[in-house]
Every structure is written in structure tokens, then in C-alpha cells.
Design goal:
41% of the residues lie in helices and 13% in strands. It has 260 residues and is of the alpha/beta class. The chain has a single domain, classed as 3-Layer(aba) Sandwich (Rossmann fold). Helix 4 packs antiparallel against helix 8 and helix 5 crosses helix 6. The longest helix has 21 residues. The two termini are 25 Å apart.
């Protein structure tokens, strides 16, 4: 299939992401809590089925986990699709070591979706760190998958401007897929909360909606986050976590926002 035009021209914030290494902490949580623009609430009443597309195992939980849990509680069919198995989260590994990391992360994802009350995730197995090289193939896969669902299906994917190249590639592929199939697109940020600021012109606040989350859904998200020790805990050798605690704390504190 040839790619259809996405709903809006893609704008990459990869340079912004690179300029804010994880070690510097990023935009403090309290800045977001004190100064984030007041946003309209997302109306979920028309959602009957949703496909949640994540670039790596844990994106679906960190960026959209509570929303997924709440939708499942409402009787909505929620299907997580993990585009990669996250093998590049630990640089410099041998092929065998990378395969081991991928297996660990698939197992962690299985635990996380169960904690959220969702069915087993689908893993597409595209190469972590190189999703952009397979973007049109991903668009075809998502198009085929969405076309097999009901006509009212929604698709939530990592935001096209999130900064991480894999996240942005997934967002662009999802945007093509929804144009082809007529699905409703939501884009959820993950790394935006790290490199952006509340008055950032790079963030499309005019398209932003906050999800009215329940306490039960937030509790399940907190539980699901604990399913990823390979990312959020120090290594057995004492190395720092792949994702620092400040990043996880910020993503748990800022609630969940989507662009639509």
C-alpha cells in the first residue's frame, strides 16, 4: 500500500530530546503541576474499541496506562500493540544479550497489561532504535490491523512530536493508518514531559485533552509500572536505572494527556 497523507505535517522534536539528557532531570514535576495549561477533558463516551500502539514495552503503561485500565473497566475492548521488544534499551550488548533483554521486556509487558486488566499484548518485533527505517511497513501493519476491527475503533499511539525517534515514527505510521481506515487517532506524549515546558510552542496545546481518570485506574497504572524492573530499577551490578526515578515519578504525577 502507498502511504496516505497524515492528518498534519509531522514535526520532529528529536533535537530537543537529545539536548536534554536524562541525567539532567528534565522539566521538574512541580513545574508541570503548577503551570500546565488548563485543558478540556477528553470525551470517551463514543469509544467502543481502542488499539494502543507503543514504540517499546512500558510506553503504553507510562503514557496511556491509566486510560487503558479505565476504558477496560467501562467495557471497552483495549488491545496493546508493542512495535518493538525494547532490545536497544541497554547499549553495547551482544546479539545474544540483546535477545535476552527482549525476552525480559516481553515478559514485563505481559505482567503490565495483566495489571491494567487488559488482554495479552501483540508484539510486532520491529527493531528497537530503527523503527523509522520500517515506518511504511509499520503503517501497512497497523492499517491491516485497524481494518480488521470494528468501524468505531480508536487508535492511541505515541505522539509524532515526542522527541524519541522511535516514538515519532510510530506516531507517523499510526497517523497514516487512521487516514486509510477511518479510525479515530489519539496521540499520547511520553518524553514531551521531559524536554518541553508548560508554555512550549512546540506542544500543540490547542489539540490537547486531559483524560478524566478514576482513582482505581491510577492505582492500576502504579501497579503496572512495577512490572518493568529492567528499566526502572538499578541493575544487579549496581548500574543506574535505564529510566531514572525522576522520570517515572513525573509521568505518574502529570496524569494523562492526549492530542486529538
Amino acid at each position: 500500500m502507498t502511504p496516505a497523507a497524515p492528518a498534519e505535517p509531522p514535526v520532529s522534536n528529536a533535537a530537543r530530546f537529545v539536548a536534554r539528557p536524562l541525567s539532567n532531570g528534565g522539566t521538574p514535576t512541580q513545574v508541570w503541576l503548577n503551570s500546565r495549561p488548563a485543558l478540556p477533558m477528553l470525551d470517551l463516551t463514543a469509544c467502543r474499541e481502542i488499539v494502543v500502539v507503543a514504540a517499546h514495552p512500558d510506553d503504553e503503561t507510562l503514557g496511556f496506562g491509566a486510560t487503558s485500565a479505565m476504558l477496560a473497566d467501562m467495557g471497552v475492548r483495549v488491545q496493546v500493540v508493542s512495535v518493538s521488544d525494547g532490545g536497544a534499551s541497554h547499549p553495547g550488548l551482544s546479539q545474544l544479550e540483546r535477545q535476552r533483554v527482549e525476552q525480559i521486556r516481553r515478559t514485563e509487558l505481559d505482567r503490565a497489561v495483566r495489571a491494567l486488566g487488559l488482554p495479552d499484548a501483540i508484539s510486532l518485533g520491529l527493531p528497537d532504535g530503527q523503527i523509522g527505517d520500517h515506518e511504511y511497513r509499520l503503517a501497512d501493519l497497523l492499517s491491516e490491523f485497524l481494518a480488521s476491527r470494528s468501524a468505531e475503533t480508536w487508535c492511541a499511539a505515541t505522539w509524532r512530536g515526542d522527541g524519541h525517534p522511535d516514538h515519532e515514527a510510530v506516531g507517523r505510521a499510526a497517523a497514516i493508518a487512521v487516514v486509510r481506515t477511518g479510525a479515530t487517532l489519539l496521540e499520547y506524549p511520553v518524553w514531551m514531559w521531559h524536554w518541553a515546558s508548560p508554555d512550549d510552542a512546540a506542544v500543540p496545546w490547542n489539540r490537547a485533552r486531559e483524560v478524566p481518570l478514576t482513582a482505581e485506574a491510577l492505582d492500576r497504572k502504579h501497579l503496572a509500572v512495577q512490572s518493568f524492573p529492567s528499566q526502572f530499577d538499578p541493575s544487579p551490578a549496581g548500574e543506574a536505572p535505564v529510566v531514572p526515578p525522576a522520570v517515572v515519578h513525573r509521568l505518574l504525577a502529570v496524569s494523562e494527556v492526549v492530542f486529538c
